[in-house]
Design goal:
Blueprint lengths: L3 H11 L3 E3 L36 H7 L7 E6 L3 H12 L6 E3 L5 H10 L3 E3 L2 E3 L6 E4 L10 E5 L10 H10 L4 E4 L22 E4 L1 H4 L7 E6 L5 H10 L7 H16 L3 H17 L2 E4 L5 E5 L5 H9 L3 E3 L1 E2 L4 E4 L11 H10 L21 E3 L7 E5 L13 E3 L14 H13 L2 E3 L5 E5 L2
Parallel strand pairs: 1-13, 3-4, 3-7, 7-8, 8-9
Antiparallel strand pairs: 2-10, 4-16, 5-6, 9-10, 11-12, 12-15, 14-15, 17-20, 18-19
Length: 445
């Protein structure tokens, strides 16, 4: 066997790539993961406990994840997805539907399908900076839901008043699940507060996205008084491997130690040096609510163009879209081995074209209205041109990239306003899962 993936990874690393994407260890230049030994990849032998029935060392290890006294922490070795699925499944037997924001991760929809659970979709505000969903708007229904799910922060590091949202839902008797995948570093000096500070019932954090942990390493924090608490803990054993990786768990332990001892002054010094260098080069820098995220634009050019210019210098971003690129900054610290001088040299070497004032970038349209999601099984489907799709039932989700969240849903009745938005995406050349050569899949009645 030729080991194509191994060779590709080795070739990539020889270029000395500089990471502005996840995971948070940034090619092992942040944190202490490089001190781990691959021989730590063991199984549940004597003295090493069982993640699905922790009584010893794993119980002690998770107990040390003490971000807030009102919560217990549980390792997620199958990623944040396993935590989201567990909470949804634990509440599925309740008669009331789930209520959620439009920008929930696609795994939430998978959870709804598995649980055969309906959901009310809240209307949203859209950011004037990133043109992405930010804040769910209040629904006027005074009745309790079985669960409320929101994303905080959004992918781009923008925030909304999650404290008021949680309080409003609790007054109705609705428990709240906060997908804080991109906020594992929240609560550190200079960074936003976590939803843990606002009494959310369940908070899931992807430690690997911003902290130095291995990919797939996440944590779910469950409030000590959360409803369905025991059911959620039981379902964690359903949605996680029966052979959890001790490397992932040991990495989570190190990542949390990093969090506990982090001093952020150096980060903000390095961050300012980076911002200054980018601005001197001529790129427009947009700072997000979360200091760990920035976006870059350049008049008359798309984010895809900027990504190519950066990658020509082996600088790799998290994502690009029609208007911008997103950078996830490293959690710089005094003991890191991040190649900062090399970074500055590579930024200086970037060759930018002249600003094109004649070229305009159209902003992507996003539906902001409320809606409903009902899990449906569609066995027969057919392709149809968008121009003929009004009134039909969608047979699969429509997912623009980035950020890769479903915008129109399987089983949804297609309206002309939806077609207009999809036509706009096609005109702009957006990458959209579910649209191919102007055709979409509908239910074949």
């Amino acid at each position: 066997m030729s080991l194509p993936l191994n060779h590709q990874l080795k070739s990539f690393l020889k270029q000395q790539p500089i990471s502005f994407h996840v995971p948070g260890h940034k090619n092992m230049t942040i944190g202490s993961l490089r001190e781990m030994d691959l021989a730590m990849d063991i199984t549940e032998i004597t003295d090493f406990d069982d993640l699905h029935h922790p009584e010893g060392i794993l119980k002690e290890s998770m107990h040390a994840l003490d971000k807030h006294p009102n919560y217990d922490a549980f390792y997620l070795v199958n990623g944040t997805t396993s935590g989201l699925l567990s909470v949804i499944q634990a509440t599925a037997k309740q008669a009331a539907p789930i209520v959620m924001s439009r920008n929930v991760h696609k795994s939430v929809f998978h959870g709804l399908d598995l649980a055969q659970k309906d959901a009310e979709i809240l209307p949203m505000t859209v950011s004037e900076v990133t043109h992405q969903y930010v804040a769910p708007l209040s629904n006027q229904n005074a009745e309790s839901n079985s669960l409320a799910i929101v994303t905080y922060p959004n992918y781009y590091g923008e925030l909304f008043d999650v404290a008021s949202f949680i309080s409003e839902q609790h007054k109705k008797g609705t428990p709240v699940l906060v997908d804080e995948a991109h906020g594992a570093h929240f609560g550190l000096p200079g960074f936003p507060k976590s939803a843990l500070s606002f009494e959310a019932d369940y908070v899931v954090q992807s430690y690997h996205k911003s902290l130095p942990a291995l990919t797939m390493s996440s944590v779910i924090f469950i409030h000590k008084n959360a409803p369905y608490r025991e059911q959620v803990i039981e379902y964690l054993t359903y949605f996680q491997s029966s052979s959890p990786s001790y490397l992932l768990m040991a990495g989570l332990e190190r990542a949390h130690q990093f969090y506990q001892t982090y001093e952020s002054t150096h980060f903000f010094t390095q961050r300012q040096r980076l911002l200054d260098a980018l601005k001197v080069k001529g790129l427009e820098v947009h700072e997000m609510d979360d200091p760990l995220k920035i976006t870059l634009t350049y008049t008359g050019y798309s984010g895809y163009d900027i990504q190519q210019w950066l990658e020509s210098q082996h600088l790799y971003v998290e994502l690009s879209d029609e208007t911008q690129v997103l950078l996830v900054l490293p959690m710089w610290h005094k003991e890191d081995c991040f190649p900062f001088d090399l970074l500055l040299a590579r930024i200086e070497a970037i060759v930018l074209p002249k600003i094109s004032v004649e070229t305009s970038i159209n902003l992507p349209k996003m539906p902001e209205w409320s809606g409903n999601y009902q899990p449906v099984s569609i066995d027969k489907m057919k392709d149809i041109d968008l121009s003929e799709a009004a009134g039909e039932l969608l047979a699969q989700h429509i997912v623009p990239y980035p950020p890769g969240i479903p915008v129109f849903y399987k089983g949804e009745r297609i309206q002309q306003a939806m077609i207009d938005i999809m036509e706009d995406w096609i005109t702009q050349g957006m990458r959209v899962e579910g649209i191919k050569h102007r055709t979409i899949k509908i239910k074949d009645e």
